[in-house]
Amino acid sequence: MEPRDPQEQFVHLVRLGWDLRGLGLGTSLVLPQTGQPILEVMSENETRVRITAVHRARGWVFVWRPWWARMWRPGEAICADADNAADVIVSAAIA
After folding, report:
1. Residues 1-30, buried b or exposed e (16+ Cβ, 10 A)?
2. How would DSSP label each residue in 21-80?
3. 15-60: per-residue pLDDT in tens?
């Protein structure tokens, strides 16, 4: 799925990265030459999660999966505008 607005996608990922940093996690924004940007999050126990922002029918959402997952699993998404998006991602994917 191609993002509707690449700059808006970038802004969502940067904002999430900043929020995760505030929770004590290291993040890296990966901007590949081709493909979509990805926010990589590394926890203290070396769990690495890749997060992307995608535009769906009702707006932007963050979707994540661990580095080893090959398929998206249901329920691994949260609205990008949610105030608690970073907290949900930490508890669901990193903790």
Report:
1. eebeeeeebbebbebbbebbeeeebebeee
2. HHTT-EEEEE--SSS--EEEEE-TT--EEEEEEEEETTEEEEEEEETT--S--TT-EEET
3. 999 999 999 888 999 998 988 899 999 877 777 888 999 998 889 9
